[in-house]
């Protein structure tokens, strides 16, 4: 049944005008070969691989006639669903005692934007993407979204070209360490929730996260996020996105709490200074 559905889906991408795409992106053949190396697969249908690498920002190069040109958004949709199923099933197999809530949080952490963007960077998928000039200069948080979406799209391309077993084996290789260290990932993923519950139990309110600056270069900017109780800063961290930076702050503060460097009395004192 699944193979029949994959066959039907493959037909939806046959109208790509490969020659038209190549005129704007002459590197497309090399990029497809690079993607094949990353996924350890030689594409039988290069159109599937090509479409998976076309970000919608590149459509600007065909302002009047986009016929035969497609972005990777539909493949992204399919890849997202397949990836979610893969992580859910493998997490249940690897962690037989985890309950539904923890399994859901683990899946959310592994298929979240930050983690998928990290996978894309580590694998070199971003180097294969075909993007518009404006996207090349976008902010780091936006680039994370693009890279995460690209991971989902190339996963779908592999699924359609090589089949479910090959796609599953590739994902298992990519996420093997993540799945084995699921408990550690859950601890990090839950740091903001833990910190919020802890401070609310003491003073009735959560910490406030503020972006206090940036660092790095125009090409590689990092956001500095600090957490405050009242007017007192209790920790800061930097990352390529504000969301990731706030998670790192929470992790650092939870470590302070567990080591005794940040106590309940200190939190009460910090909160009292605001009044």
TrEMBL record:
Function: Digests double-stranded RNA. Involved in the processing of primary rRNA transcript to yield the immediate precursors to the large and small rRNAs (23S and 16S). Processes some mRNAs, and tRNAs when they are encoded in the rRNA operon. Processes pre-crRNA and tracrRNA of type II CRISPR loci if present in the organism.
The reaction(s) this protein catalyses: Endonucleolytic cleavage to 5'-phosphomonoester
Limits of the RNase III domain: 21-163
Enzyme class: hydrolase
Protein name: Ribonuclease 3
GO CC terms: cytoplasm
Organism: Silvanigrella aquatica
Subunit structure: Homodimer.
Residues engaged in binding Mg(2+): 76, 149, 152
Keywords, comma-separated and alphabetical: Cytoplasm, Endonuclease, Hydrolase, Magnesium, Metal-binding, mRNA processing, Nuclease, RNA-binding, rRNA processing, rRNA-binding, tRNA processing
């Amino acid at each position: 049944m699944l193979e029949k559905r994959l066959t039907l889906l493959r037909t939806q991408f046959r109208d790509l005008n490969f020659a038209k795409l190549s005129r704007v992106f002459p590197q497309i053949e090399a990029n497809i070969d690079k993607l094949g190396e990353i996924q350890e697969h030689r594409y039988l249908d290069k159109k599937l691989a090509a479409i998976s690498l076309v970000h919608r920002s590149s459509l600007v190069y065909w302002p009047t006639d986009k016929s035969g040109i497609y972005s990777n958004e539909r493949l992204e949709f399919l890849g997202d669903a397949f990836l979610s199923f893969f992580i859910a099933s493998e997490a249940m197999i690897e962690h037989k005692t985890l309950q539904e809530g923890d399994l859901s949080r683990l899946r959310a952490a592994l298929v979240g934007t930050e983690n998928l963007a990290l996978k894309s960077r580590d694998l070199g998928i971003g180097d294969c993407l075909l993007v518009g000039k404006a996207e090349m200069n976008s902010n780091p948080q936006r680039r994370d979204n693009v890279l995460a979406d690209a991971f989902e799209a190339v996963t779908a391309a592999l699924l359609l070209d090589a089949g479910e077993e090959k796609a599953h084996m590739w994902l298992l290789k990519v996420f093997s360490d993540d799945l084995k260290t699921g408990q550690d990932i859950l601890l990090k993923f839950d740091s903001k929730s833990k910190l919020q519950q802890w401070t609310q139990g003491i003073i009735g309110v959560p910490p406030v996260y503020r972006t206090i600056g940036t660092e790095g270069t125009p090409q590689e900017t990092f956001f500095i996020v600090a957490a405050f109780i009242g007017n007192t800063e209790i920790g800061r961290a930097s990352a390529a996105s504000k969301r990731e930076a706030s998670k790192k702050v929470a992790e650092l503060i939870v470590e302070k709490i567990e080591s005794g460097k940040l106590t309940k009395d200190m939190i009460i004192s910090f909160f009292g200074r605001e009044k």
